[in-house]
Design brief:
This protein is α/β, with parallel strands linked by helices. It has 2 domains: 148 residues, Rossmann fold (3-Layer(aba) Sandwich), CATH 3.40.50; 41 residues. It contains 8 helices and 7 strands. The chain has a 7-stranded mixed sheet, with helices on both faces. The longest helix has 17 residues. It is elongated, with a radius of gyration of 18 Å. The protein starts with a helix and ends with a helix. 33% of the residues are buried.
Length: 207
């Protein structure tokens, strides 16, 4: 079964953990790869809908996995040492993180948009970013690894990522962002223009 670069990256981050919860598991392919590589011992596949969970059951047949219909962590009482929340909007991930009953676990977060919102939320709710990864798989995906702790982020850190901005592999992503902002800035109002000018300055400072 073909696996995307994004799935491979998410699975690679589970290495060394015992029980991994996958919120919004969809087909369960991240967990399957983690099992196949011997990275995890047990998995809890979670989805808000029954149909994707049935697909995950088929893909994870014979593996040590549980399958739970739940809106985020609401129905999760089992212990775990890692949780994956991937493929959702930043606001949705923030809402899910607000309901976790296990703040001491490590979390792998992959928002589809508004990464600055997610980073700001984490800083305000006693989480720290341990690492940030980026991969291009038809689209640029940013993956944050976080745990309980404290961090202080500047507006620039929130936008660029406190760790990601120092990684060479992120340069193409930032160049892409810069080109996009420069294209749209002539067509926005004065207030929006000031915001975009600040973002452009952040990007130009690291390129």
């Amino acid at each position: 079964m073909a696996r995307s670069k994004r799935i491979k990256l998410l699975a690679s981050l589970t290495k060394g953990y015992h029980t991994v919860v996958d919120i919004g598991t969809d087909h369960g392919l991240v967990l399957k790869q983690a099992f196949d590589l011997g990275y995890i011992k047990h998995a809890i596949a979670v989805d808000i809908k029954a149909m994707p969970l049935e697909q995950a059951k088929d893909n994870l047949k014979g593996y040590d996995a549980q399958f739970i219909i739940s809106d985020g962590f609401k129905q999760i009482d089992q212990p775990f040492d890692m949780a994956i929340i991937a493929g959702m909007g930043a606001y949705t991930i923030c809402e899910i993180m607000a309901e976790t009953k296990n703040p001491h676990a490590r979390y792998v977060l992959q928002a589809n948009d508004k990464h600055e919102i997610l980073r700001k939320y984490l800083a305000q709710h006693q989480y720290r970013i341990v690492d940030e990864h980026i991969i291009f798989d038809g689209f640029y995906y940013i993956v944050m690894v976080v745990e309980q702790g404290c961090m202080t982020l500047s507006p620039k850190d929130c936008y660029l990522g406190p760790i990601l901005q120092h990684k060479q592999e992120a340069k193409p992503y930032y160049r892409h962002k810069l080109i996009t902002l420069k294209k749209i800035i002539p067509s926005v109002d004065d207030h929006k223009k000031k915001v975009l000018e600040a973002l452009i300055a952040y990007l130009e400072s690291i390129l």
